[in-house]
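Issue 218. Parser rejects a valid record. Input:
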Amino acid sequence: MLIYTNSRTTLLYSVSILTLSLSVFVFNMIFSDLKGFFSEYSSSLPAFFWMCYMLIAGNIMFFAMLWLSGRYILKIEDSKEGFISVKTWSILGFHKTEKHPKSILDNIKYCQGYTHIRGTTTANAPWFKLKTPKGKILVIDAQGHFSKKVKNFKPNQTHTNEPIN
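Output the parser choked on:
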């Protein structure tokens, strides 16, 4: 029986391609003419700092997508043996399905998903944090589709802003 499903696969791949493109662009911009990049600055110290900043800023979203790969849940199905099948998204397209004890659904934590960056618009992306028996954190998008047939599945709605780890 289907417990949860998510239809954001296309969006995840689109964002992955966009962030990979940005990453390649930043690397190309800096390293295709490294001497020219450093000559744009008055000394090598500011050039080094700007290079580090651009590499971090240009790749942080791609690293976030790599972190989500294997953690973002696409589907949760109930099996009769007291286990659930959890299908996770992969950035390479090789989605992985694992079986876990059904009891892990009892410890789901709700995360508000608000951004707290001063001077920017606030994003609201609520999600549930599911921890596997091995300690791996899985992400359940709260805007996915939960089955109405499942009466026992009531995630802990305690609002938390705790870190991911």
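Fixed in the parser; the record now loads. DSSP finds three helices and nine strands in the chain.
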